[in-house]
Amino acid sequence: MTKGTSLMTWNGMINGEFIQLEVPATERLVTILRDGLLLTGTKISCEIGRCGACMVLLNGEPVNSCLLMAYQCDGQEIQTIEGLAPWNEKELHPIQQAFIDEGGFQCGYCTPGMILSTTTLLKNHPDPTVEQIENALCGNLCRCTGYGGIIRAVQQAAASCKVDKE
Ligand code: FES
Ligand code: FES
């Protein structure tokens, strides 16, 4: 804890579970998730809001958790990649499966953020154009894939999610 930083009782709904922790008010959400709750699917890379590796959903909208302090997200609903298809469920979420099928990752560091951005995209645009996909993922940087597999993965995910709803 930084000297002089006051503690707060932080509350949050994380992946559907109520969590309460004593943390410095200026603790970053990414630190709460990774160090406090061991939800290490949320990655840290640039730490300045540029890469999207730390992306989570805050009340359903993608945010960079490296930029959000505890007091700014107190009492909010947060979803991490672990909440998409819990480890003890037999099947992956269709978006996760699509990233595997279409080779939408190599090292995988950007993938949790990509997938969470995709969940919001498909909620708002169930049949997205390539331009809508590119816009939705413009805050998620990938240093490995060249994006072709990622775009195909989102298109496959859109098709699978539509079938699931029929
Ligand atoms: S680590 Fe948060 S945006 Fe890069
Ligand atoms: S798969 Fe390596 S950063 Fe995207």
Which of globular, elongated, flat, extended, rod-shaped describes the shape? globular
The largest β sheet comes out as: 5 strands, mixed
The percent range for helix content is: 25-40%
Structural class: alpha+beta
Contiguous runs where pLDDT drops below 50 for at least 5 residues: none
N-to-C order of helices and strands: EEHEEEHHHH
Cα Rg: 16 Å
Strand residues, percent? 15-25%
Strands side by side in the biggest sheet: 2-1-5-3-4
- Helix count from the secondary structure assignment: 5
Bound molecules: FE2/S2 (inorganic) cluster
Mean pLDDT, nearest integer?
93
How many angstroms separate the termini?
Answer: 50 Å
Total number of strands: 5
Give the SSE layout.
Elements: E1 7-14, E2 17-24, H1 29-36, E3 55-58, E4 61-64, E5 76-79, H2 94-101, H3 111-124, H4 130-136, H5 148-165
Parallel strand pairs: 1-5
Antiparallel strand pairs: 1-2, 3-4, 3-5
Bound molecules: FE2/S2 (inorganic) cluster (2 copies).
